[in-house]
Amino acid sequence: MGGSGGSGYEVDIIGGGAGGPSCSTLSFDAPVASPDPAVVAQISVHDTCDVVVAGVPPQVRLLVRPIGAQLGALTERIADLTKCIADGYRYEAEVISTAPVVRVRVRPQRNN
């Protein structure tokens, strides 16, 4: 009765069920966690970052192209991103705002 409505929401967010996101179309906007102020001072809206999984425990990190400096990390959709990246998909994040909060738009990486 009481808690039955919540489980479907968790499956959709985590992507564990049939309603989960497709890795080839996974796209969302998110704030950057713990942005490095020195790196933020060097970026502009429309700059692009590589989305990578690194560290122990694993973190989803944003590395600014072409300099490779770590802008910060993502805390949203971690389960989806880590699974999809482990499955061979690659993602990029476009800076959509730098103030008052650094935000990015994550999407599958375009093939060059």
TrEMBL record:
It comes from Actinotalea fermentans. This is Uncharacterized protein. It comes from the Bacteria.
